[in-house]
Structures
1.
Amino acid sequence: MKKKLFIKVLVLIFSVVSSCEAKTYKGKVDNLSKPFVQNGHFGRITSLTLSPNSRYLLSSSRDNRITLWDVATGRELKSYEGHSDYVRDIKFIDNNNFLSASQDAIIKLWNIDNGEKKYFFGHRGGVRSLNISKNKKRFISTGGDGKIIIWNIKNGNIEHFINTNRSSVNDAIYANEDNTIYSINTKKTIQVYDKLLKNKIDEYYIH
């Protein structure tokens, strides 16, 4: 099942939309009048995220790049470079801005037209995952350093964090109207925290 899904994604991403002599597209994403080359990715795809209006798809890869695609046409619109190691996760905040998490331990905020806008430093190992709160004011990141961090998107500050004393936290999500946080680590344990990461509410072991 996973193999079939991976093949479908590759077909979407690497489809060629023009057989004529093409130029690489470098303008705003709304200008699709000129032919261009679809470079796609040169490494394994690590994550996909869809914009809230379902117009754009973002893909990240082990080639350290992020690529923006037009959902309706399957066209590659733009590529973003700036991470020094592979990108593990990406998430749209709104239709124009998105976050990226990399093995280089840096989280970046991007604008789809203008590129990099803000950096978030706080992890000492590769950042594994990103998840945005329902109100779009905060996001959670997890890392290979065993940390879960809650960030303020607007000012870039760390609001709360916890060191789980685990070798790595693979993912964390908001639940119950952003009042609860669920995380999973490499020890096959799901841990449940309050929204401030101050109290561990529960713990489940996966066999």
2.
Amino acid sequence: MLRNLWRKSFDCAASWSAPIAVGLIGALGCAPAAACGAALVLAIDVSSSVNDWEYDLIRRGHEAAFRDPELIDIVRSNGLRVMAMHWSGPDHQLVHTPWRALDTEADALAFAALLGKAPRQSFQERTALGSALERLTDIWGPEERACARRIIDVTADGVNNAGPSAAAARERLIADGVTLNALVVLGDYPNPMFFYEREVIGGPGAFMETALNFATYARAFRRKLLRELRPSLAALPAGDAVAARAEPRRPDPRDRRSP
């Protein structure tokens, strides 16, 4: 466990005088570990293409994922820093849950409750992903930079269609060591999957997950969250991507109809 390794390295150094500790920590295999496993940004698309019913499915999917026993095990083992931001048009990015540390089951459940109650922001705007990524270039404080990995988890159902291109901010983030992953909800035309695959994801271990529609969002989000917080799973194929590549779909009215 990363926090246990950190304590081990501290105890190892404390048992020697300073000059000896400097020379022997590495040889003893107890170099300091990162302060937390990952710093994770949930960047959630709330543009006009996402209706209230769909947003409710997103909100409930996020809450369920952070209540999941596997996610709680990761939190207890590695620690996690996390924040959530809604985004839509060029001037609309709102951090509705600032950075917070998750180290225990209680921390994870409290964050899940916040996500489950997060109100929909009334952004009747287009999809300005470039502006959202630009906002996230300076979101990282010292505590987040002390984590082993920094990840932006973009969820969206359409391509960038307002504001600047995503390319410049994407390159700055990757150069800074940030990984950009994406969860793409399919159904729009042209298929947004190809845009996110080619122009958004990037950085160490980056991958894209897909959901066939908003009804399957919760399952896809859980799968994606576990993959990005367990790097050994990041090379696995996305659940719905194979079918989506085989036949890009035109919009299905049933994907956007309230029950």
3.
Amino acid sequence: MGTTMRLAVSITVCCGALIACGADEKAETTDNSALATAPTASPATSQPLAVTSAPDGGDDIWSTVRIAEAFDSGSTYEGGGNQYSVAEEIGLEDVVADAQYAIRGRVIDIHPSEVNTRTGEFEISDEQRASDAPPAVTPEARTKIDVEVLDVLGERPDSPVSPGNEVRLDAAGGSLRLVMVAEAAAAMRLIDTDTTLPPGDVEATIGQNMELGWSEGDEVIVFVTQRDVLLSTFTNGKPDVRPDATTIAAWPAGAFAVVDDMAISRAEYTSFGSRLPVEDIIGAAEELNQPR
């Protein structure tokens, strides 16, 4: 489709699956540039995307959007900045309150980053496509993580997990490089619309720090919950939903890497800091065995 222009565009996005810590939330922005950055993503094969057809049955600017590269290094994406809403510091008691069960496990597969849609590829709803206004949200990145359950540390009644199971976490964050015509990038606010749009295709990167610091093979402790995840498409003016997604409780505070007898957290805005004894985490997880 001609020459592709690579633009220095990096989009920081908000996750739709955050724990609500209070009625009045305020936006906090943190610069995680000091955190270790995982290895550079290996290129993924460009793929056709499941987008709906234009109203007249022909092609439109949205049919040009494709994934050129998905972050896939065997580690969670920790590059770039992050932005999310908090009302106050999150404590272990908040993590426990949000969780259905807690496991000690081993990371067996960190899948390539996906777009936060039903298919994991770029989609736009008929409602967004037909509107004269640009899409209400920038596409977000999410990452599936498979964890082998070594031990169940605590669980609510009827929690469906046992040692030997594999749990697939639908985790917020990741990084994707998208290619599209400049008009589509401008409509999604990925490039400056106040300047003349460049001809041909452009590239834009969307990324969100996962704040986990995990690699395949790592031993981890995870507090797990199921909640609806807001998607990047809209119907009747409201975000579409992936119901009952298995995800990290009080993201990202409910996730820890285990190193010797210490649990390591990469989460910002917690009252328990970045390192605490594994026995403290186990003690907190045991509270899940008690009736609410």
4.
Amino acid sequence: MQRTIETNATIGRLKELRQRGVMTNVDLGALERLYRERYARFLRLAEAIVRDPELAREVVQETFARVIRSRSRHRGEGSVEAWVWRTLVNAARSAVRDRSRRAVAVADVPEPRGSANGHEPDDGVRALVAALPERQRLVLFLRYYADLDYRQIADALEIQEGTVAATLNHAHTAIRRALETEVHP
């Protein structure tokens, strides 16, 4: 219910801005569609980064507020969707920095809702993902929580596709090695 109210409020603000002709460099209709179609994915990524469902909702709302406020600065380089993903990652990072004084338990790293392989989430894997360097975690989150392809991840993080592939490979290798060490100490 809360999500529906927040979503409807944001969509209402977007429609109002479109009617007033406020959006200049970004098609408001496309932004509204993106919000409606990708909200759950935006929320999953924000939750994976900030590790708090309530804060994640705030991050998604802040992301769209930032996009609206900075619409005139959008250079048109890359897609609007990549710009929104990048803004979301930056907003989530800022939220984490803002609350960095408080310790967050490693076990609080959320798993994607509904495992694709049908297995229950493993707290050991959560801890391993949380221990990865930030870039590796972000690439994993964008790939598996937001379901973005390599090109979209590259655009969102402003890196090359080859860097995405290498970073994802390093993350998989680190997790695999740590799991093998647990099984065969």
